[in-house]
Sequence to fold (554 residues):
Amino acid sequence: MTATDVTTAGVSFLDGGPAVEPEVAHIGEALVRAARAEGAEGVCFIRMDGSEYALTYRRLLDDAARMLAGIRAAGVRPGETIILQIADDPELLTAFWACILGGFVPMPVNAGATAAQREAAPELLRLVWNGYGKPHVITGAGQRLAPEVAADPDWEAAWLGDTRRLLTNAPDHAWHPAQPGDPAMYLLTSGSTGVPKAVVLTHRNVLARTAGTVRVNGLGRHTRTFNWMPLDHVGGLVMFHVRDVYLGCHQVHARFEWVLEDPLRWMAAIDRHRADTTWAPNFAFGLINDQADRLREQSWDLGCLRYIMNGGEAIRNGVVRRFLRLLAPFGLPHDAMWPGWGMSETSAGVVDCEFSTIEADDERYVPVGRPQPGTMVRVVDEHNQLVPPGVVGRLQATGATVTSGYYRNPEQNRQSFTPDGWFKTGDLAYVQDGILTVTGRADDVIQLGGVTYHGHEIEARVEEFDFVVPSYTVACLVTGEDGETEELAVFFHPRAGTPVAEAERLIRDRVADAFGAEVAYVVPVAKEEIPKTGIGKLRRAQLRERFEAARASV
Fold:
């Protein structure tokens, strides 16, 4: 039964069809195949100083074999967990593949894509290492450790060494024959407080997602990709790097911070490498829009771009349209933008569609399309019953691409899956005419005057002001001073020289006009005061907690 057949029957259920049979038996075989392919290119890394470092697939396989020898010499057995906290991207990927080829399960831990994350990295490693039973660890050379970890008597046995030392071994070419249902990796979720949840992705999960997107989006060995999201994140690691190794295509990875320093470097690098495929969360397209006055200085040719995946956070209609309009003079195709949906628990993006198919200019939400092969989605009410088409409900997913659960977390697994095995995504959505539209996170809902809004809607309207720096605006409910009611707060980062009092008045008036709501608190903040995940998504709940704690201490 097709997605259209089901939705016209009066329920919100979409089936992407059976999973595509992958061309390799396990993920490690993809690297071996790429290394042996005639004319295969490899991976290019752009460093923080803008210089580039190329790594052929043959060299990546050889380096991974060297690390594998060192890991095996330490007595690590297939199936055991190895935490990877490695700041150097080539060495992180080498350690990742060493684990894959040896049958060990890598758990990448953020080593610091920004200065704030680098400062937090030692504590994050401590939390994860202790929280998951003190497994084996590989670090980058000169890695800074939390004092409690360095002094722990179990650390010496757990630490397998740093990447530079492991690379000195003679290569071991005896690959582990992984089975489809074996865990391939544990990916940490970014929205957690305390010990992050670890998503279990099997070889079947990752290969089903990879083979599905290759077929649907027409990707092949001549595809050329560009990614600047951290490689410990599902988007950078699975959606791009592993997929591109499977294709044996040319892939470029830039440092997150390098692009944030000057967002136009993203487009310049795409032009230079003739990349046809890239991705980013919606905030990144706003960063390009914010540089509109510099575009006349550029001479890019962006006619090469055919697939820009926009996913990872709420997609803003106006931001996408302005991005396409601003870059059209550089040859950017009008149909290059593809809104999509996915998460670590679905092995990255599994739903997408062309943005150019959207007709009107005033949609409140942006459709994200149909599921790819190997994925089914449904929208249900609080009793897990399918809702009618067009009705907003709770988004759930199942299929070959979807995780079976979280590592060593039975309580979270009980909460995250329905009795019939569907994963509860935490998103709200609706299905109309066989197309999925995600409206926002369930924990991001704001009730104003009996109308339901999402924080990202209010943030989008506030960021229409020129004096507001994009991607640093948060709208959320906070506990009122009476300790019982909830009131609306808007946090924003003003441009230098902005009269703050006037800015606060304009923001209050804009929200009142657009949403009929009173803003109790308009709070100007520095950029570093806005908490974000490793790929730049806003952490609204964390900001609320900080604000309430600071107000209580006054």
